[in-house]
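lol so apparently i was supposed to do this last week
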Amino acid sequence: MKRSRNPQAESNVVLDRLHYFESRQDALLKIVRELVEIESPSDDKSCTDRIAAILAQRFAQLGGHPHLHSAEEYGDHLQIDFHGARNGKPVLLLGHFDTVYPLGTLSAMPCRVDNGRLYGPGVLDMKAGIALMLSAIEALQTGHGRLPRPVTVFLVSDEEVGSCSSRKITEELARKSAGVLVLEPAAGVRGAVKTARKGVGEYTLTVTGVAAHAGLDPGKGHSAIVELARQIPAISKLNDLKHGISVNPGVIRGGTRTNVVAAEAIAEIDVRIKSAKQATPLDRKLRGLKPIDKRCKLSVEGGINRLPMERNAGVIALYHKAQAIAKPIDWKLEEAAVGGGSDGNFTAALGIPTLDGLGALGEGAHALHEHIIISELPRRAFLLAGLIESA
Ligand SMILES: [Zn+2]
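anyway here it is w/ zinc ion bound
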């Protein structure tokens, strides 16, 4: 946006930009649709590689320089670099093109418009976010001739399965960037940006007991199932919701047959923390669980995968910039703290200013009714464009 001393002229420039995005709403919607209709489940490498190649082409058409980071287990990750009119650190636009939906979901859950909403697998989380990146970059180039500053786009293939192979690259790119804008869905029906996210961990507790015939030798057995059942209340006691710690034994399994005293039982535990300093004490408590039946053995594996995105000074500064961009169009941009993690947790934990939830507004991520609100797309693109300029 050109700087102007005249407030009237400045507000005209702002409104022109909003109108530009409003006039491009159908084009933006078309891109979202196209992306949703290319299925890309995390666990299907040929699918995610295919959408990466299509996206590489789209960003290249806008003048970006695509580079694929090959990955073995899941799909390749896509980095696109754009030069800017001025030098300096790039802003990093972060997202993922994998979805939680298995291949073939589209036939049961087709991409469709209904009552101002676009439905489809992965539309909110986060194909619309990728379309917003394309739209904002195109708009800035139209306005400035080229991007006002260098921009790096990084789209990963494995976010929904823990970002194992992309994490290092995300962190490397973030370290070189002035700030990170994460295009995950906005929070709530008012479209708040996310300034804090909980840290996420996963643990597995394996109980090893002593098997025996339940009829012939019941006294010789030491049931792993009974022991696990006794451990569950101890695990549950680690919840401290007041301080943002939640511990959920979400899956249990064990035993083989009713007439066998179970030799093994397992609990899979989801853990959420609000601040990084809660990670070690909680980890110690989980690993410190003691068997009540001394003939049973406990072993705990896992750990915290994503540290929390804490609302630090860098995050707050970015949020204030976003508010200032939204204000002239009478948009009171709110902030939210959420329980789910994203790749923004990695970049914020490094101390790089990070703002999340800049993607589309909608509901039902990972669910049958997943959708976005179409009429909100223009101002989300407007906000992103402004942040690319000033982040
Ligand atoms: Zn997501």
